[in-house]
Amino acid sequence: EIKVTLENGDEYDAKVIGTDPKTDIALIKIDNDNNLPVVELGNSDELQVGEWVMAIGNPFGLNHTVTVGVVSAKGRVIGSGPYDDYIQTDASINPGNSGGPLINTKGKVIGISSAIYAGNTGGNIGIGFAIPINLAKSILEDLRTKGAVTRGRLGVMIQKITPELAKSFNLSENEGALVGDVIKGSPAERSGIERGDVIVEFDGQPVKTMEELPKLVAQTRPGSEVDVVVVRDGKRKVIRTTIDKLEDRGREILSSKIEKMGLRVQDITPELMQSLDLDSQDGVLVADVIFDSPASSAGIRRGDVIAEINREKINNLHDFEVKMDKLGTEDTVLLLIKRGGSTIYIAMKMK
After folding, report:
1. With 0-12 CB in 10 A as exposed, 13-18 as middle and 19+ as buried, what is 1?
2. Cα–Cα distances in Å, from 83 out to 25, 59, 65, 342?
3. How confident is the chain (351 residues) per 10-residue block, as mean pLDDT?
4. Among 3, 16, 166, 205, which residue has the fewest nearby CB atoms (within 10 Å)?
């Protein structure tokens, strides 16, 4: 049940039109015949570091609180998922601000307040993050018409180019996305992209960092033919590729107890088992680790496999949910983690 309350006290029932967990954005709708005023969506790509912005939200239940600050940085990656691209601001953002608009001096919405770095205080210390409004605009039509977002899929596992890797792969600069693996049956495999290739351009757009590639691929319509430029053995090569549709392989969950941990987990499919070089499908895959959460503080990473909870084996997602529901008021949970061919124990504080 969703209620929307306006500043004048009017309350409306709302319904969900579409959701996109990967970007943490949802579209809801209310019925109103009074021609409500609306805010104009701006262009977050035009934002400049140092530009003044205003945040409006509901921090700690204090309705319609307004704070001001500047854009501290753009393109921040905070570990929330494959499409990290946050606006950082020192406008005071606290718990309860999430979902509120970040507005420029022209009165246009250029971001959606989403997260904070709270340190040990639990409140604002001048480091807040907002989803760029252009990211929301790019998925708005899909949410409105289909209730979900259609994304493109290339089918590569990538990693960052370090100076040492750049030298090893005969690259002139530390730019691009190194292909660590190619998923079987994917567009990348069909078109001839190989492990060890460095993707430096996708559909005419330069790929300077690893984080840029997933966003470019996601924005490409399935069925589109694109040119992927790779560096192989020190030489540039253009590979024509037809992009597939990204399917949600394995149901992701975020229940109340798991939310406290700061984890998003999913079943391990045969495709994931092969691409991650796992020896079995037992356990659950960590799809996301929430920034500044107990899981993040404990050192759990995206891509880890949780094999046990408190010395009890985890077989699948359902098993994980059942064992999580049985947890009492423990301050610490002992997890057995599979990572990179080895296993480690992690004791995670729940409070």
Report:
1. exposed
2. 12, 26, 29, 28
3. 86 91 88 86 93 90 88 80 80 84 95 77 75 90 88 86 80 84 87 91 90 86 92 90 75 52 81 76 86 83 89 85 74 84 82 62
4. 3
Which residue matches tokens 């540039």? 236
Verdict on whether the full-model pTM lies above 0.85: no
pLDDT computed for residue 80 by the predictor: 62
Beta bridge partners of 339: 342
CA distance 123 to 223: 45
Going edge to edge, which strands form the sheet with 2-5?
2-5, 11-20, 25-30
The pLDDT value recorded for residue 252 is: 42
Q: How far apart are alpha carbons 321 and 85 in whole angstroms? A: 30
Residue 52: per-residue pLDDT: 96
The strand pair at 52-57 and 2-5 is best described as: unpaired
3-state secondary structure the chain: CEEEECCCCCEEEEEEEEEECCCCEEEEEECCCCCCCCCCECCHHHCCCCCEEEEEECHHHCCCEEEEEEEEEEEECCCCCCCCCEEEECCCCCCCCCCCEEEECCCCEEEEEEEECCCCCCCCCCCEEEEEHHHHHHHHHHHHHHCCCCCEECCEEEEECCHHHHHHCCCCCCCCEEEEEECCCCHHHHHCCCCCCEEEEECCEECCCCCHHHHHHHCCCCCCEEEEEEEECCEEEEEEEECEECCCCCCCECCHHHHHHCEEEECCCHHHHHHCCCCCCCCEEEEEECCCCHHHHHCCCCCCEEEEECCEECCCHHHHHHHHHHCCCCCEEEEEEEECCEEEEEEEECC
Q: How far apart are CA 210 and CA 208, in angstroms?
A: 7
Calpha distance 42→85 (Å, rounded)? 17
pLDDT for 238 equals 94
Up-side HSE of residue 191: CA atoms within 13 Å toward CB? 24
CA pair distance 80, 291, nearest whole angstrom? 6
Task: Tokens for 149, please give them.
Answer: 């977002």
